[in-house]
Specification:
alpha/beta, binds flavin-adenine dinucleotide, six-stranded mixed beta sheet
């Protein structure tokens, strides 16, 4: 073992979604070995629909030379085109700020993203063990013991909770931590194959419909990636959602978009029921402390910005890089974790606030909708300048620079 590994011990990473493999690779880069423990029994092929990894997330991956497989498995997303349900284009905003090699925001099927990150991590010799659901933690003399639902346990010098929005790690280290809050929106999405829409692969079309929000991306070759955000109150239980067949969601969406001048109905009608994914959309305010003892939280386990921000995966990647940097540069776990939280918290809260504003626009009633449609073009014109987006999409972590050294963020505006 080298100095860092001896100093902090072997890392246990709980959760092999997005943050897990990225933190595994970042720890390896700074000379700290770890193993990743993932609850699902098998690699997560076929899960979820798709997501957009923003330029700032790709920049984080670039720090550990891991962005190329993600970019190769996705499609470049240059802009978001926003319109109202009447079909009126309200404006368009840049979806990313290109990295030095030209890479920019990329939309990718979720299963492909997971596979790309897993393959990359495994290819670098990092072990990902499936079928390991964390259900208890104990302090040990040298760090922490993780106990899994299958009765096994592992001991490490420290543990990274990368176990997502319903994180067991968060609950264990702080039973009073905030719980995920329902945004008032249900997300429904799918990839529809073989459509004859005119392709526009680099422009994500987003519509504030009269009763719900609809986004789609029409690719070459007939694939259409789409999602709808539907205001639903009160929050349906998971059992209610699971009991509602996809065909019922389709019916509901067809009715909801009946008055909108957009291709939503055509796309929804052409969608295979089995391709449909749905779930309640949540946010999570970060707990007061993101760590306790030898345990620290990253990604959705620490904060959830809701899908409206298009930033959850990217923030998870940034967390992973920043945590590894802090562990490299701080001799003690406590100071590494404190520094990591300090470097991340302000930014995460700012993204959360921005996402909350978008959610309320999506769930707007008739009066709020009229106001929204009137002010939105103005807002978009303001946001459309790359300078206004720099703080979000141009965020850069100087991975090789020392923590506490000269700041290396791109100039922040606004
Ligand atoms: C509908 C939808 C659309 C979205 N769209 C976007 C988007 O366009 N752009 C974007 O950036 N973000 C988007 N997000 C958010 C994004 O998916 C998350 O922010 C991101 O997945 C967080 O990564 P993570 O690794 O922290 O958590 P996850 O990806 O959720 O991974 C957590 C992993 O931990 C595992 N796990 C859970 N509990 C345990 C346990 N007890 N023990 C061991 N393992 C466990 C899980 O099986 C999972 O593999 C979207 C989210 C949703 C729901």
């Amino acid at each position: 073992m080298n100095g860092k590994a001896e100093r902090h011990g072997w890392g246990l990473v709980v959760g092999g979604g997005i943050a897990g493999p990225v933190v595994g690779m970042a720890l390896q880069r700074v000379g700290i070995p770890c193993t990743i423990y993932e609850a699902s029994p098998e690699p997560s092929d076929g899960i979820g629909a798709f997501l957009t990894v923003a330029s700032n997330g790709l920049d984080a991956l670039q720090a550990i030379d891991a962005h190329r497989p993600v970019v190769a498995a996705g499609v470049r997303t240059n802009r978001l085109v926003l319109s109202s349900g009447s079909g009126k284009v309200l404006g368009s905003v840049e979806a990313g700020i290109p990295l030095t090699d030209g890479t920019t925001t990329t939309t990718i099927e979720r299963a492909r993203l997971y596979r790309a990150l897993h393959d990359e991590a495994r290819g670098r010799g990092i072990s990902i063990v499936h079928g390991k659901r964390l259900n208890a933690l104990e302090e040990s003399e040298d760090g922490v013991i993780a106990r899994f639902a299958d009765g096994t346990s592992e001991e490490g010098g420290f543990l990274v909770g990368a176990d997502g929005i319903w994180s067991a790690t968060r609950q264990i280290i702080d039973p009073a931590a905030p719980r995920p809050e329902y945004t008032g929106l249900i997300g429904v999405g799918a990839i529809t194959r073989g459509m004859d829409l005119p392709p526009d692969p680099n422009s994500f079309q987003m519509t504030f419909g009269r009763r719900a929000f609809f986004g789609f991306l029409a690719l070459e070759g007939g694939d259409v990636l789409w999602f709808a955000n539907l205001p639903v109150q009160p929050e349906p239980t998971r059992a209610e959602l699971a009991a509602t067949p996809p065909s019922e969601w389709k019916e509901r969406l067809l009715e909801v978009f009946a008055e909108d001048a957009i291709p939503a109905r055509k796309i929804i009608e052409a969608t295979d029921d089995a391709a449909i994914r749905m779930g309640a959309m949540h946010t999570l305010q970060p707990p007061t402390r993101w760590h306790r003892g030898s345990v620290v939280l990253i990604g959705d386990a620490a904060h959830v910005t809701s899908p409206s921000s298009g930033q959850g995966a990217s923030l998870a990647m940034e967390d992973a890089i920043e945590l590894a940097r802090c562990l490299r540069d701080r001799p003690r776990l406590a100071s590494a974790f404190e520094t990591y939280q300090r470097l991340r918290e302000k930014r995460v809260r700012r993204v959360l606030r921005a996402a909350r504003r978008v959610n309320s626009d999506k769930a707007a009633g008739p009066v709020a909708r009229a106001i929204r449609d009137a002010v939105m073009p103005l807002f978009i014109r303001r946001m459309a300048t790359p300078q206004r987006q720099l703080w979000l999409l141009g965020h850069h972590i100087d991975f090789t620079g020392a923590v506490g050294g000269p700041r290396s963020l791109l100039p922040t505006v606004g």
